[in-house]
């Protein structure tokens, strides 16, 4: 007896950043377990070395090549691309015949305009799941009634929702057919460092004996980088390395943080790498760091790919945020210090405590219980576990 082919279409509008990295590893793990995965994404999504899934670059790239100053033009472009990408998703489902679909770019924006076509496919037997990286959908754009309608429609066609911590999703209206499954955020398989800790520090003009803080990844307001810079006034031996790019228009530019550091008199203890950092170079940065800063605001309730990256290199973190998987993982596995969010004094106290009394993290247990294989097994169990044609 032969098993039906297990085919999965993975919808991803993000070309770079944490969600794109997550999708790659998840698709790789699914493929390793025998699922034929087609990643429907944009031409800007890179061809990744060793990728086993099928890359289908048919979507439009949401992020413009250059910032668009006119907000009406910027908004109109966003609306057009969002609706066109969902139209292309529907078209791909119909032409490919794939009946299992994961929405990797889950969001509610404009859902009343694109969700009806997905609900029609659902009634025809297509099974939709979504990776809900940010389960608390409380960022309101426009009237609240439109926000509630949009969130309700974004969930309406889903049978499966995959989250990183046990939570009751607020779907805004009853959705009795929706199943919520907790999946771990796996650890990224970054390469080992190519240079010693001492060599990397020399290259960055960092003292051998100074505590080095690393702020890695996309730069956005919610990460409270301004508080980290302010903390250098109080932690006078610490140095800060900022490696990454501003995530999107509307966020504070790097110039804001540079000027803040200069105004506070700590610019000489800051190092700036305002660009995408390739894997090998990232490995060297983590090798040189003593602490990874994940000082999110209270509004952040999601998981952090940088936390898994820090765990890969056994670097403890100083973390903050709202209730969610980041807090759970840091505290459950003693991966660093958790501090009150949006609070400079709490950040300073937590950093001093972390440096004076380093934690004893459970690195191995964290790795075993939060693997990509476990993630993929749970996805397969839900998406294909009820029979059907796959």
UniProtKB/TrEMBL annotation:
Residues 197-362 form the Glycosyl transferase family domain. Its EC number is 2.4.-.-. It is an enzyme of class 2 (transferase). Keywords: Glycosyltransferase, Transferase. Pfam families: Glycos_transf_1 (PF00534). It comes from the Bacteria. The keyword Transferase applies. InterPro entries: Glyco_trans_1 (IPR001296). This is Glycosyltransferase. It comes from Chloracidobacterium sp. N. One of its GO terms (molecular function) is glycosyltransferase activity.
């Amino acid at each position: 007896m032969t098993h039906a082919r297990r085919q999965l279409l993975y919808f991803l509008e993000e070309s770079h950043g944490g969600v794109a990295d997550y999708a790659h590893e998840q698709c790789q793990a699914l493929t390793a377990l025998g699922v034929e995965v087609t990643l429907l994404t944009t031409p800007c999504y890179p061809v990744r070395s060793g990728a086993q899934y099928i890359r289908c670059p048919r979507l439009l790239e949401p992020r413009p090549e250059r910032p668009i100053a006119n907000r009406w033009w910027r908004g109109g472009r966003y609306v057009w691309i969002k609706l066109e990408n969902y139209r292309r998703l529907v078209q791909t489902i119909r032409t490919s015949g794939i009946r299992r679909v994961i929405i990797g770019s889950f969001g509610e924006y404009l859902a009343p305009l694109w969700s009806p076509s997905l609900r029609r496919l659902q009634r025809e037997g297509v099974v939709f799941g979504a990776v809900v990286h940010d389960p608390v959908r409380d960022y309101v754009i426009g009237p609240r009634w439109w926000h509630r309608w949009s969130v309700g429609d974004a969930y309406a066609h889903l049978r499966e929702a995959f989250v990183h911590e046990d939570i009751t999703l607020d779907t805004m209206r009853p959705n009795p057919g929706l199943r919520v499954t907790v999946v771990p955020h796996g650890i990224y398989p970054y390469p080992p460092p190519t240079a010693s800790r001492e060599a990397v520090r020399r290259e960055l003009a960092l003292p051998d004996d100074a505590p080095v803080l690393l702020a890695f990844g996309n730069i956005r307001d919610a990460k409270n980088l301004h508080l980290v810079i302010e903390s250098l006034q109080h932690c006078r031996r610490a140095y800060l390395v900022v490696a990454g790019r501003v995530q999107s228009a509307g966020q504070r530019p790097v110039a804001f943080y540079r000027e803040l550091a200069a105004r506070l008199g700590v610019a000489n203890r800051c190092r700036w790498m305002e660009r995408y950092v390739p894997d090998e170079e990232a490995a060297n940065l983590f090798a040189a760091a003593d602490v990874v800063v994940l000082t999110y605001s209270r509004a952040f309730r999601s998981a952090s790919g940088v936390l898994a990256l820090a765990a890969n290199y056994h670097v403890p973190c100083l973390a903050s945020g709202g209730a969610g998987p980041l807090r759970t993982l840091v505290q459950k596995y003693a991966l660093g210090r958790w501090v009150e969010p949006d609070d400079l004094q709490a950040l300073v106290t937590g950093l001093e405590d972390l440096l004076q009394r380093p934690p004893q993290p459970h690195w191995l247990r964290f790795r075993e219980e939060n693997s990509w294989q476990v993630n993929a097994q749970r996805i397969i169990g839900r998406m294909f576990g009820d029979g059907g044609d796959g």
